[in-house]
Amino acid sequence: MKVAVVGAGISGLVAAHELAKSGVKVVIYDKKNYIGGHANTVTVNGVDLDLGFMVFNRVSHRVEIENRL
């Protein structure tokens, strides 16, 4: 089976990772030339700024998933 994942943000990357783990051939498409979606770092006047949605909570399984990526 082949699956196209549209979007290389965290959701698309996790979906692609889980599909690939189960033996599915995955191709990821994104309109940008980088992965991460809204989670991105830009440099403005020599200063790095982290962009994107951030949530701090006690959910440890999210950290486990991110570490596998």
From TrEMBL:
SUPFAM superfamilies: FAD/NAD(P)-binding domain
Annotated GO MF terms: oxidoreductase activity
Protein name (Swiss-Prot/TrEMBL): Uncharacterized protein
Organism (species): Solanum pinnatisectum (tansyleaf nightshade)
